[in-house]
């Protein structure tokens, strides 16, 4: 049998997807299914004084907050209602549920519901949220959470620095852009349980949310993921699930709710807009002596996972480097915008734009090669991170930089740059695991069958290929071919709670659990259950495992229009041992394309709390025609505590794209420093004297 680890067998879900046999949530239908629509607020900020409903025909239904057993969505603060009953905090917030035999009828009835509203002044930006006279979205004000960490003597080190650079940086609100919109289906199973099927990243989260809203016990509900057409964090939490579950609970009938694309763009979860101010001090030879960062994030109307995004973004601010003196401050702010939550990178891309941009400028001012300044500052095993925690695991950044220096991309950049083009580099770092003080355990069961082995976990394959990678790990551990492994994923019925498919955790944590369970099977058991928990970081640090990526960008800038064409992106990665090279490259290329969108074109803007973008006609996602040449390689530096040496890396490719591209644009347009993405063409033209 050929070596399983490091090979690329056919994706287990590949045949069903390419033939159209794969069943997505929107494909599920039963006789008598009710279609769900929401009555959403037409304004961004108001007090709800009353609801005037039309006559509801037989076979149709209207439900409001008073019909719910519990009116909140479980999360960090559990402050968001399932249905607003008094205070409306964003345009599009759900006020009532309509269910009807067709979606057209449900939409028609929803449009006829009239809301009695006392309109309030909106908080339309994080800049407004911090003003003394801003409207208060919650009793305690507009500050959702704060973060502070202080290591060493920042002010003293800055005074001793040969060079201090300072800047303010901005990133936009971004949507996840998955092909499949948010969707959920619910019915009663043969035991009378609510059976939820959804496009989800966490089947147990859907179960718990439905239990709160309906008053049912957990054992009276099952939840599973259908085939999921992408998640990227935007399906980690309630989207459509609770509304379908409530309808089935109250009517006894099957119910389905599928977002329209407008609902997805306007009211789906978002990436947090950020404002970051940074000061960084350097010695003459390029060592980073101190870093001082303050970050503001727009969490929208509710916190969701925002406090964790703020903490991770700041924890990753100094990225992949050893910095002896670090001060990190941040505030998560409420605005009258649709809630932001998890999105691939989870705060790290916002931080990287600031720090990596300053690092590139320092290299230029100090006359040091941009790769060299990163090499001399690269963090190593045994050194302290920005919050004082000791880096106890393998870090291959220095090796990745060395391999990048031997790439075709870097040879062209340093030896034979194409005339009229600009080149830039940046480094990204991304943690793995949910972080300190957050339960982070994965459970796995393995059963011996007549044809092989069944491996069960509640983790979900959301399109990234974890089903195949985990099957490879199981096959290696059990000494059989991959086709002898039946992966049973993404369901609560019979599978313990293994948490969310998020935080680049699936391969590491589930792979280790599989290896533990496999050892019992090899010892003679026919059934085995094992659990693996992420070890907690030391000191104040939130995370203990990190992967690293060196990104290179080549661009061409049109001097007449200011248009930026990215011609080539090259990536060199340290993620331990690569289990499946094809799926690894898929993650790299997909992550790069996603962050190219944020860098060049994607943004949701608000006016009076109303999103100006509402369709893919005016929210500009990159297409296949916009994606440049993508090349990728990696170093092989196994992490001893990882499954066969692997570390997590799914979010990593998104982190350093923006600063690499902005550095390349600055190289092409001499004297231009870009502090905001998406890149503004007028800024380029002004720098080039064309505007």
Description:
There is one protein chain. The chain has about 700 residues and is an alpha+beta fold. The chain has 3 domains: about 30-40 and about 45-120 and about 175-265, Aldehyde Oxidoreductase, domain 4 (2-Layer Sandwich), CATH 3.30.365; about 275-435 and about 540-685, Aldehyde Oxidoreductase, domain 4 (2-Layer Sandwich); about 440-535, Aldehyde Oxidoreductase, domain 4 (2-Layer Sandwich). It is built from 17 helices and 25 strands. The strands form 6 sheets. The protein has a 7-stranded mixed beta sheet with strand order 3-5-1-12-9-10-11, sandwiched between helices. A 5-stranded mixed beta sheet has the order 7-15-14-13-8, sandwiched between helices. A hairpin with a 5-residue loop joins β13 and β14. The N and C termini lie far apart (about 65 Å).
Q: Secondary-structure map with pairings?
A:
Layout: H1 14-19, E1 34-40, E2 46-52, E3 61-63, E4 87-88, E5 94-100, H2 103-112, E6 114-119, H3 126-129, E7 143-151, H4 154-160, E8 163-171, E9 183-188, E10 194-198, H5 203-214, E11 221-225, H6 241-251, E12 255-258, H7 261-267, E13 273-282, E14 288-300, H8 306-315, E15 325-334, H9 348-366, H10 370-377, H11 397-405, H12 408-415, E16 421-432, E17 441-448, E18 453-457, H13 466-478, E19 485-489, H14 506-522, E20 527-533, E21 545-557, E22 564-574, H15 581-600, E23 606-607, E24 610-611, E25 629-634, H16 657-668, H17 681-687
Parallel strand pairs: 1-12, 10-11, 14-15, 18-19, 22-25
Antiparallel strand pairs: 1-5, 2-4, 2-6, 3-5, 7-15, 8-13, 9-10, 9-12, 13-14, 16-21, 17-18, 17-20, 21-22, 23-24
